[in-house]
Amino acid sequence: MWESVQASIIQFIGTTKTSEMVSYEKILYLIGEYGPSYLNGAKNTFLIALISTLLGCIIGLAVGIGQTTPVSKRDPLLKRIGVKLLKGFLAVYVEVFRGTPMMIQAVFIYYGMPLLMGGRFMDWFTAAVFIVSINTGAYMAETVRGGILSIDPGQTEGAKAIGMTHVQTMVHVILPQTLRNIMPQIGNNLIINVKDTCVLSIISVVELFFIHKGVAGALYLFFESAAITMVIYLTMTLFLTWILRWVEKKMDGKDHYDLATTDTLAHTTGTYSYPGKGSNFDERNVETEEAARRNQENRNQNVRGEL
């Protein structure tokens, strides 16, 4: 299929030299000659961003839970020390990877770590996923921590009041609400990762921007190659945005719900019949009303006596 598209583009352009073409002809020329390379770069970019965001969310979830783990003076000394050390380590991880550029992290991890640890270099795909994952995890950790702290503390107190442990409270009460609250930020990180993978070209990761640099450097068609690259990036981000909006809508559930109208105790508009005064189901306090009536009569008698 691609061969037929390529042949049609070449036939349209003819034998005109590249230097004599106008911009749109150069764009068509690049698509015909290097279309598969652009698509391969886009595929690698998409896979790296998707896998790294998923792993980064898992890392961020674990770190966020660790940062919000409660500890009190009643806990054993060993537990208190362990939790404090864990929180300190997690805080260092978050600050280091949020406070340094991902390009520097990529260079340090890909070239520096093997030298420091005496090992061999990772392949470019594994290195790319690892670098973007730990970077995303640092940002997601703060998002998860904020999402957990945004839940009403009364829900945690209520869960503990019915005998739920901290783990049960997090799994069944806090985390489901947190996940929905941070879903837009997860989607935002995915969109950012699609674009930020371009910095991985510094360690020769064959992603979309790396292909753009190669094509533009070989033919000196920087504008035309950048136009193609920009359209591909925009297409991927718009597609992912549409998918994320659909997922958010599914998580919200239905817009309308059928209210139960058979339960006589359901206080729903138009379905609850308030009992009449004096009936067996009268919710008024009879003793209070009788006392109020007597007090009013006494006040009236006092007023008449003064007159």
Q: What structural keywords apply?
A:
10 helices; 307 residues; mainly alpha
Please explain how this structure is put together:
With 307 residues, this protein is an all-alpha fold. The protein has 10 helices and no strands. α3 crosses α5, α4 packs across α5 and α5 crosses α7.
The secondary-structure class comes to mainly alpha
CA-atom Rg in angstroms: 33 Å
Q: Strand percentage, roughly? A: under 5%
Tally of helical segments:
10
Biggest sheet, open or closed, and with what strands and sense?
none
How many beta strands in the DSSP annotation? 0
Helix/strand layout:
Elements: H1 2-13, H2 23-67, H3 77-99, H4 102-117, H5 124-149, H6 153-161, H7 166-196, H8 208-219, H9 222-252, H10 286-306
Helix pairs in contact: 1-2, 2-5, 2-7, 2-8, 2-9, 3-5, 4-5, 5-7, 6-7, 7-9, 8-9
Short summary:
Helix content is 74%, strand content 0%.
